[in-house]
Design a protein that fits this description.
Helices cover about 40% and strands about 20% of the residues. By secondary structure, it is of the alpha/beta class. InterPro entries: IolE/XylAMocC-like (IPR050312), Xyl_isomerase-like_sf (IPR036237), Xyl_isomerase-like_TIM-brl (IPR013022).
Length: about 280
């Protein structure tokens, strides 16, 4: 299978735009899959209605209209919060209603690591019953530093020990949270444990981290994409264009959405870069 056939676009890049227009744009770019983004703190406000059966049916109707499919859901939240089990079970139910297998989520603060591991033991069993897989993701800021390095994620998998728990690795997150480590090397360590993968590039400024077109940042994606091409796992361009991270890694969401023209240009160039380095 051509690697691009496993590519999805994460809807975080369209933050602030109408979902119907966003999905039509994805289809016009020649991509067949979508990863809906419902990440706390990275997109607009979230409430329980966003994870309802009615909303799932609405999203399915939009996908059908544009002849798109979905395999993954971005649903980062603090997995150590007092209501984490109840809240994430709601997300698993929502994923199940969408026919989604993979729930991609960062974890939480390292101070709460024990709580996160215990909660994941409960949640992974629930996910397994629903035919879903929770894919924990390396954090990009200090709110989610319980899983910072690839080895952190592998250790959590070992402690939970459930086939319904895997990794979703994002080399772009490594740049801001563990700048002393090589994103490419981290990706190679993580990939054997991944069931899903995120791609985004990062530019490092004096005072912030921003997310440019693939190939214009500090990450060498060629060896990563070659390894990804040999593994039959889905992946998505996850580029929260509306936000940046401060030098201390804290995420800042812009007041206004990026223009659709900019979004289309960025995505087109990212797809072309993936095409070029996987030919």
């Amino acid at each position: 299978m051509n690697v691009l056939e496993r590519l999805a676009i994460n809807t975080a890049i369209f933050d602030g735009h109408d979902l119907k227009t966003s999905l039509k744009t994805i289809r016009n770019l020649g991509v067949n899959q979508v990863e809906f983004a419902f990440n706390q703190g990275y997109v607009g406000s979230l409430d329980s209605d966003m994870f309802s059966e009615n909303h799932a049916q609405y999203l399915l109707s939009l996908l059908e209209k544009e002849q798109l499919t979905t395999q993954a859901l971005g649903c980062t939240m603090n997995l150590a919060s007092p209501s984490a089990i109840e809240d994430f079970m709601m997300r698993i139910d929502f994923a199940h209603a969408l026919g989604v297998t993979y729930l991609n989520t960062c974890t939480g603060p390292i101070a709460d690591r024990h709580i996160i591991v215990e909660n994941l033991k409960v949640l992974a069993e629930y996910a397994k019953d629903k035919g879903c897989v929770i894919c924990i993701e390396n954090g990009g800021d200090h709110n989610f530093n319980a899983f910072a390095s690839a080895h952190d994620g592998v250790r959590i998998l070992s402690e939970v020990d459930n086939s319904a728990l895997a990794l979703n690795f994002d080399p772009g997150n490594s740049v801001s949270l563990v700048p002393n480590l090589s994103p490419s090397e981290e990706a190679q360590i993580a990939l054997p444990f991944c069931r899903h993968f995120h791609v985004k590039d990062v530019q490092v400024h004096d005072d912030k981290f921003t997310f440019p077109v693939l190939g214009e940042g500090v990450i060498n994606y060629q060896p990563i994409m070659q390894s990804l091409a040999s593994r039959q796992i889905p992946f998505s361009i996850e580029k929260p264009l509306r936000m940046y991270r401060r030098k201390d890694s804290f995420p800042i969401r812009g007041r206004s959405p990026e223009s659709m023209e900019t979004i289309v240009s960025v995505l087109s160039q990212c797809i072309e870069h993936i095409n070029t380095i996987t030919d």
